[in-house]
């Protein structure tokens, strides 16, 4: 078995797959939920339509929508096709994670929240605290990838089971950082989106679209996917951030998070809006 965690260019994956096919029994490819045509707009299963990309495409195939398809999603779909065309359905495993968190998460989503909550004070918390979220610990993805060596082949959505919430995530951040943070939950998400906030980046893990955290993973759970509590992921990420390795910042981390001045300004406008509403009543 080979586990490919870093295939992004279809023609390169095609070349690797063709080279390995005579000597490898199964090809496990780590893909993404971004391959789906309707992510993040609609609820998804493994049978949902996938973006169309040829198996010999280059790195720039496709286009970026807002929201909707991305070049990343197109090319991951092309990589999947390269694997299946070469190894066939019975020897191909396609893992489609959503957001992966955990130690060594250089993208910066959970690290930003941890550092923001550590700073304390009044924290802009997006949406409802009971809104389900589906991040998955990268270590659980790795364990499932190895498990598929002898399990069923095919495509698997590898995401959380929907029992965790944005509230439980931020509460875990507050607990592990021992912070005095006070969360101001702005439940009017349309109002929040209208404040010029870049969803998914300025407020990491927050998106208003219905399908963002509505990915069905029953097939993966039936095949043996197990998940650690989100609290454990938060604790271990916080511990990692305090190591020498945790001080390394990927260039993508700079894309994530909101400045303190912008957060304060939005909270001020929110207070004024609520005051006006109370006055009108």
Write the layout of secondary structure elements.
Layout lengths: L1 E3 L5 H11 L6 E4 L40 H17 L4 E6 L2 E2 L7 H11 L2 E5 L5 E2 L2 E2 H10 L6 E5 L5 E2 H12 L4 E5 L2 H5 L5 E2 L2 E2 L13 H5 L7 H12 L18 H21 L1
Parallel strand pairs: 1-2, 2-3, 3-8, 4-7, 5-10, 11-12
Antiparallel strand pairs: 6-9
Helix pairs in contact: 1-2, 3-5, 5-8
Describe this structure in words.
This protein is α/β, with parallel strands linked by helices and 281 residues long. It has a domain at 101-134 and 163-209 and 229-281: Alpha-Beta Complex (UDP-galactose 4-epimerase, domain 1), CATH 3.90.25. It contains nine helices and twelve strands. It has helices at 10-20, 71-87, 109-119, 138-147, 166-177, 189-193, 218-222, 230-241, 260-280, and strands spanning 2-4, 27-30, 92-97, 100-101, 122-126, 132-133, 136-137, 154-158, 164-165, 182-186, 199-200, 203-204. Strands 1-2-3-8 form a four-stranded parallel β-sheet, with helices on both faces. The chain has a two-stranded parallel ribbon with strand order 4-7. Strand 2, helix 2 and strand 3 form a beta-alpha-beta unit. The mean pLDDT is 94.
């Amino acid at each position: 078995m080979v586990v490919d965690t870093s295939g992004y260019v279809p023609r390169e994956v095609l070349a690797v797959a063709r080279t390995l096919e005579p000597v490898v029994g199964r090809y496990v490819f780590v893909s993404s939920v971004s391959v789906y045509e309707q992510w993040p707009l609609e609820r998804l299963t493994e049978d949902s339509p996938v973006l169309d990309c040829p198996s010999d495409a280059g790195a720039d195939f496709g286009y970026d929508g807002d929201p909707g398809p991305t070049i990343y999603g197109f090319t991951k779909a092309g990589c999947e096709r390269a694997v299946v065309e070469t190894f066939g359905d019975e020897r191909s495993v396609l893992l489609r994670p959503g957001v992966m968190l955990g130690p060594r998460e250089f993208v910066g989503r959970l690290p930003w929240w941890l550092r923001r909550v550590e700073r304390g004070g009044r924290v802009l918390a997006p949406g409802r605290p009971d809104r389900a979220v589906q991040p998955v610990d990268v270590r659980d993805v790795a364990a499932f990838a190895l498990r598929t060596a002898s399990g069923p082949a095919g495509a698997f959505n590898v995401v959380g089971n929907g029992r965790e919430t944005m509230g439980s995530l931020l509460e875990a951040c507050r607990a592990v950082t021992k912070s005095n943070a006070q969360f101001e939950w702005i439940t009017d998400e349309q109002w929040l989106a209208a404040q010029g906030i870049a969803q998914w980046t300025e407020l990491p893990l927050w998106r208003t679209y219905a399908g963002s955290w509505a990915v069905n993973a029953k097939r993966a759970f039936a095949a043996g996917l197990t998940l650690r509590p989100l609290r454990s992921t938060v604790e271990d990420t916080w511990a990692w951030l305090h190591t020498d390795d945790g001080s390394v910042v990927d260039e993508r981390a700079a894309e994530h998070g909101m400045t303190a001045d912008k957060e304060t300004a939005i909270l001020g406008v929110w207070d004024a809006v609520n005051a006006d509403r109370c006055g009108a009543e």
